[in-house]
């Protein structure tokens, strides 16, 4: 068994597509109309057949209280692995990304947390081997 698709709830799918592709560097995999929304997924350019991230609309009534609670408590909705948190932090900050946690080293783990502009906090992390 392996993870095929996971999701983050986004306030605006088109804005999310631009942020996750143009800023974070993911690649659009699927973009299929589904009623007024879309089945919109992105993947890592390093693994085009790997785990997909569904940029899921936040329309369900339970979603907004859930997202608000996570953000208020500083809990990331997702975590993405990077090779160098400090370099990625500088690259993204240079693109105007707002971080709520600058790079923090905790033993073998370095992480930082950013605002995805679509209602979520996202963690970037690297674990030293």
TrEMBL record:
Residue span, VOC domain: 2-127
Annotated PROSITE patterns: VOC (PS51819)
Pfam families documented for this protein: Glyoxalase
Highest rank taxon of the organism: Bacteria
PANTHER family the record matches: GLYOXALASE/BLEOMYCIN RESISTANCE PROTEIN/DIOXYGENASE (PTHR36437), GLYOXALASE_BLEOMYCIN RESISTANCE PROTEIN_DIOXYGENASE (PTHR36437:SF2)
Listed name of the protein: VOC family protein
Organism per entry: Streptomyces venetus
């Amino acid at each position: 068994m392996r993870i095929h698709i996971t999701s983050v709830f986004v306030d605006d799918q088109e804005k999310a597509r631009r942020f996750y592709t143009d800023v974070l560097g993911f690649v659009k995999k699927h973009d299929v109309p589904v009623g007024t929304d879309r089945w919109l997924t992105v993947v890592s350019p390093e693994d085009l057949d790997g785990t997909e991230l569904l940029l899921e609309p936040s329309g369900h009534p339970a979603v907004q209280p859930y997202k608000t609670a996570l953000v208020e408590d500083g809990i990331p909705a997702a975590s993405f692995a990077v090779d160098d948190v400090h370099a990625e932090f500088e690259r993204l900050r240079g693109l105007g990304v707002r971080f709520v946690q600058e790079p923090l080293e905790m033993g073998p783990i370095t992480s930082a947390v950013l605002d995805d502009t679509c209602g979520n906090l996202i963690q970037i992390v690297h674990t030293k081997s």
